[in-house]
Amino acid sequence: MRQATDKNWKQVEHGGVIEAGTAFEYETGDWRSRRPIWDAAKCSHCLICWIYCPDGSILTSEGKMTGIDYVHCKGCGICARECPPKASAIRMISESEARD
Amino acid sequence: MAAKLKAMTGNEAMAEAMRQINPDVVAAYPITPATEVVQIFAGFVADGLVDTEFVAVESEHSAMSACIGAAVAGARAITSTASQGLALMYEMLYIAAGLRLPIILAEVNRSLSGPLNIHCDHSDTMGASYTGWIQLFSENAQEAYDSMFQAVRIAEHPDVLLPAMVTTDGFIISHGMEAMQVIGDAEVKKFIGTYTPKHRLLDTDDPRTVSPALLQDSFFEFKRVESEAMRKAKDVVVAVGQEFGKTFGRAYGLFEPYHLEDAEVAIVVMGSTAGTAKVAIDELRAKGQKVGMLKLRCFRPFPYVELAGALKHLKVLGVMDRSDTFSSFGGPVFNEIRSALYDEPKKPVTLNTIYGLGGRDINVEDIKGFFGRLLKVVESGRTDGLVSYLGVRE
Amino acid sequence: MASLKELSKRQELLSPGHRACVGCGAALAIRQVLLAAQKVPVVASCCTGCLEIFTSIYPFSAWRIPWFHNAFENSAATASGMEAAYRALKRTGKFTKDVRFIAFGGDGGTYDIGLQSLSGAMERGHRMLYVCYNNDAYMNTGIQRSSSTPRGMHTTTSPAGTVIPGKQQNRKDLTEIMVAHNIPYVAQTEPAHWQDLNNKVERALDTDGPTFINIYAPCQLGWGYPPEDTMPLLRLAVETCFWPVYEVVDGKYKVNIKPKEKKPVVEFLKPQARFRHLFAPKNEHILDELQAEIDSRWESLLAKEALSQAGPKT
Fold first, then answer.
1. What number is the ipTM of this complex?
2. For chain C, which domains are there?
3. How many domains does chain B divide into?
4. To pair with A16 at 20 to 30 A between CA atoms, which of A5, B119, B260, C112?
5. Which residues of A fall within a CB distance of 8 Å from B210?
6. CATH number of the domain that A68 lies in?
7. Distance from CA of A7 to the nearest CA of B (A)
8. Which of C20, C221, B215 is nearest to A72 (CA)?
9. Chain B contact present for C81, CB below 8 A
10. Is the CB of C100 inside 8 Å of chain B's CB atoms?
């Protein structure tokens, strides 16, 4: 992963103009104390969790949910909370539980 | 070379220079004594004489903010201000330099409140001397006009890429009428060239992030490269000044010596007072006094090597400052010149006089009086205090 | 009006990996704004604050659009400079593409220190959208009161102390101040009503002139509630009329969401630690005053809408 200390003074980006979108390399998933678990079988692909995720960590393809980006998911629990009761396709578990 | 003689004030000259530069964006706010620069330029816009997008911002802080936005977007941006206006943009001046944006500022030197005074001194420009901006001082309207074009070339030079301010003395030069040589539009265009920025934020196909949040581990490197750019600017100021001379017949450099080489006693002056000093020096020389002057044009970058070289032979040097640092040890030019001379094995006794604050008049007799004081130091070998004040009611 | 399926096929212009707190309402608001802003490429300015910090810690950037942070109080002035450059470069043939401008600012950089710069930009008529993400305080510096802070809220500069129970003044109504600038489009929204937010951003960007959208963006840390409850809390803000969702198009008001059952404001206040002290018996009068203020503003808004719909008298 790139570091702020990679470049010396002759190498730093001119005028403070840096590459776009590099935050993707930063693994905010490390922050989690709990994580969402998605049950694909129960999912109705309403995409409500997707629109409400502050971290864009609900993965979709062709208009359907495909999973959770655990590299970035911070475990806020909004997706589990917003998943319609009829589907109840997402539940939260602790990270320690996940490790077992 | 199409040169015409025209009667212009300093403000008219700067506005005319801006018209000929024809920048993409001018974002400016009026303030005495710089108001006319903005006003006259607005007239050019209203008459369709420029292609400039004129943004009548609601404050000077927004003026510099908008110029910075414009420059980051990829445009050539110019503004003009004075005094409180320059002070109001203070934080933005640092940002313009730190982001390496070649913005040009037509600055009209005026005192800083308080209490309020709208007349000439250099405190506003001196207050901005740690911001990373290139600072060029003008003796008269001709120099201001010529320096505006040079400033564009210096600022946009790939080794530099720093913002630059060209200054005139408020009311004295800004409102003083002069006969000056004007350059043709086509010649100006050729001299300044087209602006090709390293990056344009408008290029949405190739997005960038400009000015990220730097932590303790990265800020220092960005500032180090910025200070290197200021170092490199010195040679560029010289080269552009020489090119200007070859092209238009009036050469410029870091400073102008006047009867300096064979002088025993000399002064350092910036701005309009240099003109008055030339008259005083001529009168003293006629009486056989070996006096002279160094008119400092380029204050930033500070040409300490060249200054030491030019001044070290003197017996006594009097640095005239049109501002006070309030450090309790004299004016800014005095301190920097003294520092430049420090390592010279043989150097003059260096004194300071602070003069002309808030537009206090300085005339030939005042300057001759100051030379008298300096000549006395040669005689007696004593200074009676390094810092004096010239023209204040004692 | 895009469906979620359609929206999900768009680009995520706010990259995951940004450093916003868990469940950040501001991050969500901006993510939704960028999902809406894809008809014409956008260039953004941003003021100092949470959004700027959590998206741009060197060497990382979460922005997949061109983005520039200038200073704290000048996001609007910066965007006006960029927009002026765009007009100049287009006019002189040095740039040929179409671009839209968004200036981002938190309530701190917008209601207070940035108000002058915002007002100037709006008055000058630049084609730009100003998006204020409002979390009711200066959150980036650790929860200090701003002029958007509601009456009674505990902040570090308006603490709920033994003598003074939180902020003593009512919120400034910046959205109405923007309406008074007579700009073509002004709106209030929040990300729980994603379709409303989406429509408003699209509409604003389609408008040829200055536009302003005020987005309520809950801060779980500063407001004191579990992050997973962000959406229910936003819904309560709307249902209690604490944060009306409305728009003003060329001076004509439309209240987009009228709660079927207007809930008492205490239902919005109760789940948040920032208002907890208001429920002590000695502070109950503040709750009454808050309810009265909310009711008064809501009535005023409905009256403005009625006036707008009534049209000119024949």
1. 0.97
2. 13-309 (3.40.50.970)
3. 2
4. C112
5. 15-18
6. 3.30.70
7. 8
8. C20
9. yes
10. no
| Paired strand residues for A64 | A61
Same domain? B190 vs B270: no
> Tens-digit pLDDT profile for chain C (314 aa)?
799 999 999 999 999 999 999 999 999 999 999 999 999 999 999 999 999 999 999 999 999 999 999 999 999 999 999 999 999 999 999 999 999 999 999 999 999 999 999 999 999 999 999 999 999 999 999 999 999 999 999 999 999 999 999 999 999 999 999 999 999 999 999 999 999 999 999 999 999 999 999 999 999 999 999 999 999 999 999 999 999 999 999 999 999 999 999 999 999 999 999 999 999 999 999 999 999 999 999 999 999 999 998 877 65
Q: Which single residue is written with the structure tokens 């070379």?
A: B1
Q: Are residues B232 and B261 in the same domain?
A: no
Interface test with B, best of C40, C55, C86 (most B CBs within 10 A): C86
Write out the two tokens for B302: 């500070």
| CATH classification at residue B330 | 3.40.50.920
> The domain spanning residue B103 has which CATH number?
3.40.50.970
Looking at the partner chain, which of A15, A19, A20 has a beta carbon nearest the beta carbon of B100?
Answer: A15
Please tell me which of the candidates C71, C84, C117 has its beta carbon nearest to residue B55.
C84
Domain match, B38 and B129 both: yes
C140 interface with B at CB cutoff 8 Å? no
CB C66 to CB B69 under 8 A? no
DSSP, res B308 = H
Q: Is the Cβ of B116 closer than 8 Å to some Cβ of chain C?
A: no
Other CB atoms within 10 Å distance of the CB of residue B176? 17
Neighbours of C145 (CB within 10 A): 23
Domain that holds residue B220: 3-248
- Asked whether the beta carbons of residue B211 and residue A16 sit closer than 8 angstroms, the reply is yes
Pairwise CA distance, residues B384 & C187, whole Å: 70
> Does the beta carbon of C99 lie under 8 angstroms from any beta carbon of chain B?
yes
